[in-house]
Amino acid sequence: MIEEQGRVIAVEAGAVWVETLRQSTCSSCSVKAGCGQGLLDQLGVAGKRGHVRALSDLSLNVGDSVVIGVREELLVRGSLLVYLLPLLGLFAAAVLAEQLALSEPWVIFSALCGFVGACAGVRWRSRQIAADPALQPVVLRALLAGAVATF
Question: What is the pLDDT of residue 21?
Fold first, then answer.
């Protein structure tokens, strides 16, 4: 389970909205100058706060500190879906256009169409499964006052 600490900012029936602080370890990294995350940190994006809706059966109030969690396999499956499927669509469409002996501009256009089509498929799939409780972050536990850094 991947865990993150946060603070409850809103309460719904069966869920809470949690504010988390995006943290980076760039200050201790040896390749921070050549990394995209390091560049974002230099631009001031590192300290931004994120808002996450997490399922909860605990009795929580606004301002409570909590630990939310997401299962690792969900993160891996989601990453594969978001990153790998569009690339596969791009390459599959390009290879198909090449096999049909189309000219190079048509191969490039086909590749872009395959990429856009796969991205649309990812978006459609994510909307289909967005409400599935098994795929949502959950509140694992509430923290005692003072057990979490101030936000």
Answer: 72
